[in-house]
Design goal:
Blueprint: E1 2-4, H1 7-35, H2 47-73, E2 75-78, E3 82-86, E4 93-96, E5 102-104, H3 108-113, E6 122-124, E7 129-131, H4 139-150, E8 154-156, E9 160-167, E10 173-181, E11 185-190, E12 197-202, E13 209-217, E14 220-229, E15 232-237, E16 239-246, E17 249-256, H5 260-268
Parallel strand pairs: 5-8
Antiparallel strand pairs: 1-2, 2-3, 3-4, 5-6, 6-7, 9-10, 9-15, 10-11, 11-12, 13-14, 14-15, 16-17
Helix pairs in contact: 1-2
Length: 270
């Protein structure tokens, strides 16, 4: 079994930890020198800023050290039996090759567009998927990992891909998800939570595809369309809410993620 460490993520965290450690060491040195009355006259004014900066550096350094420890335990394991993934802050994931149907690689362009946070590795079964977090490893390692995956399952690159929001007929949000269009299939999966796969639909089996009235998030207008698969209607809003957690709480931002006309044209053409 081959293990890939999240070297790219670990490098950024380690750099931040080193900088925080240096700042903390300087602040502590100033405080100690002041307590020993070694500082030149008039330099005691540095004491208060040193305390404040030292506290901030410590607050940053401590979680970075915890993350470094967690990243040392984390990784992607690809072997003869299947795939295992442990990513800090997430549940451990695994999938056997007997269950896996295909892998998806959104590509380097999407990785750059998402500022290194998304894409490049999802392994799908019938009703769930595993996020491989290949964006966290180096380019050469990503290529090796994708080659290993290709020995066991087909690695697909979507013709169209977007983040979207799955709605019901009443306009209530059901899930935030990912939508892929391949040569012969349309795949709709949850982007958060339990990583459910809502459908892997052969294009020939997709029923009525029609545009729906736009949804409005404040003044933001998001296109939407409907499709029928296996006697069920799905309402797909081409808008997505990104949430960010910070020291002062959680903030969210909605953005449009596509054109309903483009998706309908592609779906009806196949």
């Amino acid at each position: 079994m081959v293990r890939y460490h999240f070297t790219a993520h670990t490098g950024r965290i380690t750099l931040l930890a080193v900088i925080s450690g240096i700042v903390l060491a300087i602040s502590v040195s100033i405080i100690v020198l002041s307590a020993l009355h070694v500082l030149p006259p008039g330099q005691d004014v540095l004491l208060v800023p040193a305390y404040l900066i030292g506290v901030i550096a410590f607050v940053v350094l401590l979680p970075m050290l915890i993350l470094i420890y967690e990243y040392r335990r984390a990784g992607v394991w690809i072997g003869d039996e299947g795939v295992r993934v442990y990513f800090p802050g997430e549940k451990r994931q695994e999938m056997s090759w007997s269950e896996a149907r295909f892998a998806v690689n959104e590509g380097e362009d999407y990785l750059r567009a998402s500022k290194g946070k998304e894409g490049l590795g999802h392994l799908f079964a019938g009703d769930r998927y595993v996020r491989l977090h290949l964006e966290g490893i180096l380019l050469e390692q990503r290529q090796q990992a994708l080659a290993l995956l290709a020995e066991h399952v087909q690695v697909r690159e979507p013709r169209l891909f977007t983040l979207m929001t799955l709605m019901n007929n009443n306009g209530d949000i059901q899930a935030r998800g990912r939508l892929y269009l391949f040569e012969k299939e349309l795949v709709c999966a949850e982007n958060r939570g339990e990583k459910r796969v809502f459908f892997v639909a052969p294009l020939k089996d997709i029923g009525a595809v029609r545009q729906r009235g736009s949804f409005y998030i404040g003044r933001l207008e998001c296109d939407a369309f409907m499709l029928r698969y296996k006697e069920r209607e799905y309402v797909i809003m081409l808008g997505y809410e990104t949430t960010m957690s910070g020291n002062v709480g959680t903030s969210s931002h909605w953005s449009c993620t596509g054109s309903a006309a483009e998706w309908m044209e592609e779906l009806k053409a196949r």
